[in-house]
Amino acid sequence: MNTDLELCLKHLQALVSFDTSNPPKKIQSSGLLDYLNSLSYLNPQVTDLGDGSFNIMLIKGDPKYIFNVHLDTVPPGEGWNTDPHALSITDEKAIGLGACDIKGAAACLLTLIELGLDDYAVLFSTDEEAGQSTCIKEFIKTKPKFKGVIVSEPTNNLGVTCHRGIYTGTQEFYGIAGHSSDQRAMEDNAIHKLTNWCHHALNAARSFDNEAIGPLKGLAFNLGLIAGGIKPNIIADSASIKFGFRPLPGQNIDLILSSLQTESNLNESSFTPGFIAPALPANGDLKPSELMLQDLNLPPSEPVNFWTEASLFSEAGLPAIVFGPGDISNAHQPNEYVELSQLSQALDIYREIVK
Questions:
Q1: What is the pLDDT of residue 355?
Q2: Regarding beta strands 120-125 and 65-70, do their DSSP bridges make them parallel or antiparallel, or are they unpaired?
Q3: pLDDT tens digits for 235-267?
Q4: What is the rounded CA–CA span in Å between residue 314 and residue 229?
Q5: What whole-number distance in Å separates Cα of residue 312 and Cα of residue 318?
Q6: Full-prediction pTM beyond 0.85?
Q7: What pLDDT score was predicted for residue 170?
Q8: According to the model, what pLDDT value does residue 100 have?
Q9: CA distances from 259 to 190, 264, 276 (A)
Q10: What kind and span of H or E run contains 268?
Q11: Residue 228's CB: how many other CB atoms inside 10 A?
């Protein structure tokens, strides 16, 4: 094992030891901020945005590009064979909560800074996993002046220039309560109305099956959570469903939303938007991010299904790509890991990007 990788694993061991699970997002008490402040070669500029959202800016010299790494993780869940907050290192893997998504990238950047980088800009953020993105939205308001943004997520050290967006919402339905022996339940039951809407929405989502970008085909649509009713012998007077879809870059959101509704639905229900974020690239134009890949000499990835905050930078007019060590299939599950070979490769690539 080379010296640079050993130093990287030392940083990763520290980062994994801090419980930055989101929720509950207790970043202030996790020890993370104290650790970064304790590193003599750093001068972190910490912005407390409230509710566990912190932007931590590391900058020196006159860098062209800025790296963004989120330091929050999902909760550990069940099924771990080791302590999720104690990095376990084998001959091939570093195992721990966040090692793959995406504290491995943060450890790489801290290693290179410790080794003496002269020009760099790194933004650590802490609220990506809960779908808030307060950190990035507030950072964008400062109108940062960089040539582009490299957002760290597990991409097997390939440069991602295209991914789906995300749109979630809640559809609520209204009925007229009464005894279920009344035949009017067929029309007045809110759950029946919800069921009819679900059938229509699924068929509407399938109408986009012929649209594609690379391996991304159709509209990724999901009915996620249904609630309503009281008991079998009462006509339900209310019901709701939380749903989401993942549009392709360039797909018309208003067209998708209108296709999910019928005239009767509009009179019998109401819709409340949830978390909404664009695809990458936000305007559907791949050229700026592809030119950025060429400038950085990064190998390209095919478009990916998962969403990242790179799209928020893209929406603000900053060319953005997604890049980092690790495989997304190892994230958000017990015994999460990143391969040591990918960390070593990422160290070399990050070093070349900064140069």
A1: 80
A2: parallel
A3: 999 999 999 999 999 899 999 999 998 776 677
A4: 43
A5: 9
A6: yes
A7: 97
A8: 98
A9: 21, 13, 18
A10: helix 263-268
A11: 18
Report the C-alpha gap between 328 and 292 in whole angstroms. Answer: 22
| Exposure on the CB side of residue 36, measured as CA atoms within 13 A | 26
**Chain-centre distance for alpha carbon 318:** 18
Q: DSSP string covering 207-248, please?
A: TTTT-EETTEES-EEEEEEEEE-S-TTEE-SEEEEEEEEEPP
The segments of the chain whose pLDDT lies below 70 read 1, 264-265
| DSSP H/E element including 191 | helix 190-206
The DSSP result for 171-187, as a single string, is EEEE---EETTSTTHHH
Give the whole-angstrom CA distance, residue 3 versus residue 163.
Answer: 35
Whether 157 contacts 345, CB under 8 Å: yes
User: Is 268 an active-site residue?
Assistant: no
Q: What pLDDT, on a 0 to 100 scale, did the predictor assign at position 1? A: 67
Residue type, 335: N
Mention every residue, 6+ apart, whose C-beta is less than 8 A from residue 344: 2, 4, 5, 8
Q: Which is catalytic among the residues 128, 129, 309, 339?
A: 128
Show the domains of the chain with their CATH numbers.
3-163+280-354 (3.40.630.10), 166-277 (3.30.70.360)
